[in-house]
Specification:
Pathway: Cofactor biosynthesis; tetrahydrofolate biosynthesis; 2-amino-4-hydroxy-6-hydroxymethyl-7,8-dihydropteridine diphosphate from 7,8-dihydroneopterin triphosphate: step 3/4. Belongs to the DHNA family. With about 120 residues, this protein is α+β, with helices and mostly antiparallel strands. The protein has a single domain, classed as 2-Layer Sandwich (GTP Cyclohydrolase I, domain 2). It is built from 3 helices and 4 strands. Helix 2 (about 55-65) packs antiparallel against helix 3. It is elongated and about 50 Å long.
């Protein structure tokens, strides 16, 4: 059987203190995190959490990394990705994106974005 499944979280909002500029690390900002994973279906009709990805655990991993203030969102995203990869070695693909909603820039901008994709 060669069936793939995707499991993830989209639009998870965190308030955190990431940013290159000192004022960003003082004032904080809203960040939106998406985590999408993909893996083979291990068995047809299996109803066991051990044979899938627990999205509650995905949230806990993201929340822990978001609490660690970093200058670059790339550092945060890689931390999330590497932790998920270690904890769920059966995953074929992991995609992490983080958007920052308020930017220290002139102009009308919805958000900035960093995204990483791991493929086995």
């Amino acid at each position: 059987m060669n069936i793939k499944k995707k499991i993830g979280l989209e639009g998870v909002r965190f308030f955190a203190y990431h940013g290159f500029y000192p004022e960003e690390q003082i004032l904080g900002n809203e960040f939106i995190v998406d985590i999408i994973t993909e893996m083979d279906v291990l068995s047809d009709g299996d109803d066991e959490l051990a044979n899938t990805v627990n999205y509650e655990r995905l949230f806990e991993i993201a929340a822990l990394q978001m609490k660690k203030t970093q200058k670059l969102l790339e550092t945060v995203a890689i931390g999330i990705l590497n932790t998920i990869k270690e904890e769920f070695p059966s995953l074929d693909t992991i995609r992490i994106s983080i958007r920052k909603t308020r930017l220290p820039l002139e102009g009308e901008i919805n958000n900035s974005l960093v995204e990483f994709t791991y493929r086995k």
